Amino acid sequence: MAELRSSGVSESQGVLDRVEARLLVVDDEPNIRELLSASLRMSGFEVVTAADGREAVHFAERIRPDLVVLDVMLPDMDGFAVAGRLREMSEQMPVVFLTARDGTDDKVAGLRLADDYVTKPFSLEEVLARIRAVLRRTRGDLDLPTRLQVGDLELDEEAHQVWRSGVAVRLSPTEFKLLHYFMVNTGRVLSKAQILDHVWNYDFGGDAGVVESYVSYLRRKVDTAEPRLIHTLRGVGYVLRQPHSD
Amino acid sequence: MAELRSSGVSESQGVLDRVEARLLVVDDEPNIRELLSASLRMSGFEVVTAADGREAVHFAERIRPDLVVLDVMLPDMDGFAVAGRLREMSEQMPVVFLTARDGTDDKVAGLRLADDYVTKPFSLEEVLARIRAVLRRTRGDLDLPTRLQVGDLELDEEAHQVWRSGVAVRLSPTEFKLLHYFMVNTGRVLSKAQILDHVWNYDFGGDAGVVESYVSYLRRKVDTAEPRLIHTLRGVGYVLRQPHSD
DNA sequence: GGAAACGTTCAGCCATGGCTGAGCTACGTT
DNA sequence: AACGTAGCTCAGCCATGGCTGAACGTTTCC
């Protein structure tokens, strides 16, 4: 399914080329597991996967991951129970939960206080952002910037705000996610398929036309002045480029 | 705190500050223990947990916490007895009690001896406020501000009072807690779920609709004039922003 | 014991955002 | 230069989210 679209090679978003951290991904649906692990590996993480709670605990013991991505709904045991076991073996093992967007789930109440959680269906950008945020917190990598800058464009993740030459710009949630994806991948060509896979939820059925639309919206709000930052590579994709070094 | 400034946005106070103090959390219910320790860690405390009186005394001896959060009702020994033991080993060990809200008077008598207490079910904001207040008293951290200010909005925690451009405003307890939470997290987007989890009691079953209502009340009482301070980020949450950087 | 304040829910309205399809423009290939 | 294709933009529809006022129940304080 979706993963086929992003067979590209140079997808590494990593600030670092080497391993950022060791992750354990736990989900019983093979599709989700593959989707996540493939794209996390692309982003520079070392990934081990488990399909149920028993496996999760087992692998966690052996590989001592830096963080666990954990589906709440598992065939054998509750995600919280797994988290409990993990915490037993290591006081501070950070967990990012995956959960259905049910709303009425009262279990979810406790979740939000956990290290973090993402609702299904998610976009890869969302998951990556959470993981990085949690790692930043738990390791005290506080100097990793929460603010991105390209040319006179600035984006603050925490404040969820964007400035162009100092003046605040209002972006819709999707516009924001798209710009964020561009900025994290400054200087890298992104195909429409890649963008679709990362910015839109994995169950989105539509075609690449949306991407064109949203790039258009973004340009209008954020890239009207010279030098232009977002460039079209006909037949290939888009790039956000630092001015100057073009 | 100074070092945080370097990351640009963080308005101090917040989630990402370095270790504020070492806490020992004692409660026999795992849920409460996890709830508290997760959110205290998020707020920058170093946390160790214990499930009963024996463990509590044991850990207190070893780690010498700066403050103990102590459930009054423990399986093996009375919370007051534990507090007694703690005081034996360190004259001035501050204790914040957790107690059921059933108001039997003899318990309250004992509570007067505590530095402070919070009744269950509590909201995280309440607990955090107590802990910070006690730490401020006992170790003279007088530089921790008791008065918060954003634009022409001022809030005094000790006096439990709020002013908008100098004129006092009457807020209900919930309104006050909500505004306090906003002000402590100035510049940070807060989802309705987060707000619900921090401002409302942990056993509150309702949905995020209440948050909308209370934001509405708050705006009416406190944010009628330009420039507006409380902003809605559709589909994301709310932010309280310093004016100017609008 | 009564009145006021407070907290919660709900329903209706309004605004915003997401997506699509169609027409148009720009590109670049031959 | 001309054709075909890719990309851009816009308008419009639909769904969702958010705001507010009113109603109801509960607590608090005289």
How would you describe this protein?
Two copies of one chain form a homodimer. The first copy, chain A, has helices spanning about 1-5, 30-40, 55-65, 80-90, 110, 125-140, 175-185, 190-200, 210-220, and strands at about 20-25, 45-50, 65-70, 95-100, 115-120, 145-150, 155, 160-165, 165-170, 230-235, 235-240. In chain A, strand 3 (about 65-70), helix 4 (about 80-90) and strand 4 form a beta-alpha-beta unit. In chain A, strands 2-1-3-4-5 form a five-stranded parallel β-sheet, sandwiched between helices. In chain A, strands 6-7-8-9 form a four-stranded antiparallel β-sheet, with helices on one face. The model of chain A is unreliable at about 1-15 and about 105 (pLDDT under 50). Chain A has about 250 residues and is of the alpha/beta class. Chain A has two domains: about 20-140, Rossmann fold (3-Layer(aba) Sandwich); about 145-240, Winged helix-like DNA-binding domain superfamily/Winged helix DNA-binding domain (Arc Repressor Mutant, subunit A). Chains A and B meet through loops of A and helix 2 and helix 8 of B. Chain A binds a DNA duplex (30 and 30 nucleotides) through helix 7 and helix 9.
